[in-house]
Amino acid sequence: MSSHAHGRSRASRPSTRRSVEKDTLTTAGRAGFVARGIVYVLIGVLAVRIAFGHGGGEQADRQGALHQIAAQPFGTVMLWALVVGFACMAIWRAARALLARGPHRKVGSRLLDGGRAVFYASVCWGIATYAAGSGESSGGNAQSQDWTASALKMSGGRILVGLAGLVLIGVGTVLAVRAAQRRFLKQLNTGVMSHRTREVVTGLGVAGGIARGTVFATAGIFVLVAAVRFDPHQAKGMDATLRSFTDTPAGPWLLALIAVGLILFGVFSFASARWRRL
Questions:
Q1: Is the dihedral of CA 187, 189, 190, 193 positive or negative?
Q2: By mean pLDDT, which of 35-49, 130-144, 245-259 is the weakest?
């Protein structure tokens, strides 16, 4: 009996270890969605202010959101909390790319999660640099133009920049279409939601996802134009991309609409932290 009990104890250890690892990654994923939600809500609020002429010298991008956080009491602490959150998101995405099993974990899905892990790791690094450097760094618009200028100087750089623009357009289009099709509901544990809650979360996901996809696709168009015209100044970061909506016939109202959509996407990220299957 002692040997049987010892055998069962040894057999249960891998299962317990896997359970702890899963719980840890689940917590990391939820923390990451909260961090993403905070940034999108702040960007959306800044864009609304700009749309109605109250933005002043503010930037409606991640840099502007970080500046707003840094200006608050305990701002540095909150910035480092965001660093932890995005680090958790990067780890969760990387774990999905490398460790997740199942019939749906095909090569394409793993590569997509791997790309997202790299992206969130870069966001994490950028916020950490900002927090450690007292908030001194160039804005997203300047960074986009600097990257485009450096790429255009390379052999075949024009093609590289053009491809980057097409990728952004494609990503934005996919994000918007998938949101309109409500594909995100497959990733949420809707069974535990009330009917009203599901309706609200669905509305957040559709409106927020379409707005987010529109911004990505529009930024991609500017990058593509920069490649065609061989002019890095045509490339725009999120702030300049959002401001470009005011140049349309709809004027600031279109920017306000997109800005509200980004706020809704931020709130949807909070809902994902609560109900997403991780």
A1: negative
A2: 130-144
CA distance 212 to 261: 7
pLDDT over threshold 80, residue 136: no
The two tokens of residue 247 are 């140049």
Structure tokens at 153: 């100087």
| Contact (Cβ atoms closer than 8 angstroms) between residue 188 and residue 276 | yes
The separation between CA 85 and the C-alpha centre of its own chain, rounded to angstroms, equals 12
What is the rounded distance in angstroms from the CA atom of residue 169 to the CA atom of residue 223?
9
- Read out DSSP for 166-222? HHHHHHHHHHHHHHHTTGGGGGB-GGGS-HHHHHHHHHHHHHHHHHHHHHHHHHHHH
Residue 101 reports pLDDT greater than 80: no
Residue 14 confidence (pLDDT): 65
